[in-house]
Fold this sequence. Notes:
The protein has 420 residues and is an alpha+beta fold. Helices cover 26% and strands 22% of the residues.
Amino acid sequence: MTAQDTTTQGSTAHDLVARRTTGHSLEGAFYTGQEFFGLDIEAVFAKHWLFVATDAELPEPGDYLTLDVGPYSILLVRHGGDDLRAFHNVCRHRGARLLDQERGSVGNLVCGYHKWTYGTDGALRHAPSQPPEFDPGCFGLKPVHVRSVGGLVFVCVAEEPPADFAEVAALIEPYLLPHRLREAKVAARVDLVEDGNWKLVMENNRECYHCDSHPELLRSFFPTYGCTEADVPPQLRSAHERYLRADAELRATYDRLGLPFALVEELDTRVSGFRIQRDALDLAGESFTPDGTAACRRLLGDLPTARLGHLSLHLQPNAWFHVLSDHAVTFSVLPVAPGKTALRTTWLVHPDAEEGVDYDLGTLMKVWRATNEQDARLVARAQQGVGSPAYEPGPYAPTEYQVEAFCNWYVTRLREHLWR
């Protein structure tokens, strides 16, 4: 056990939350302590809407997937054509894990211990050797809140999930619907366990201060990505002018096609914090490829042109997304241990797109697979550093304002939980 495992110089979690300095990184115990890991599960992951999958991963009735959120095992299943259900993956007999495979397809949900059998609606259908007075209606699976938003699937294990998520869904769904992600198919999925706390993974994603570590990604992003007008250094002024021209052209295209594009940013001003915006990409401006051209010949939805830049969506606490004309990439983060985090990346393409004909899988995945691996190394370095007794919180640069917004959102959630 390290000195930062539960306290820092005798301070409790209450003390550390109360004294957090705005504009500075969090103290080491937030990232290394088992106490904070448990607190994060209770105050954040067990209380908020979490992105966990896409509709495309459960296309047919009976398709299911399971996932672990701290001590919670969740079962997500397609009950009907447009009907997703989510349950605690716990048999109502003696508590056995109901399904132990990560994903698959079933007719009914059958417990492997004593064969209690449930429909995909969670109702108990069969329980062997029960007395005549046994009422199966009292023993259905315990439900978990689930909602699909434009093809993105969210769950919440809280009895009363954040009510403002309905407002957020109404704001972001018009941006997503033109891409028809509900009808897309999964081209690839990669799971990566990073050697760092989940907050370091999220913070790393919330800034481009470090983006010179991402040569593949920087082929598509403008050199000034992440900068405000006031932050653009003189040597990048010409690149910024190029961005402004591309941005003006795209805004005209968005208006002509009726695609919403304006920045809406409420990262730390509501419980279900988010940020969404359409923005230009460099070079051909179509996709994340070395020359910026589309990685898939079949475009998503009914989009008439490939040159649409990218739709960027961030959602607290555990997800970000890039949706383009030709494909979409989703990212979900789940804590495994204080210094371990699971990152799942999923690539979606048009349902009729054929690998080797319409897209090359290596080209489709190249940029974000490389970027994820680079980020994993950076997160591991950060985790090693915050565990040192010499570490103390440092100040954020102006371009790291979204990191501050994330930390402010997170600390606010802890305060509400600890002082409730």
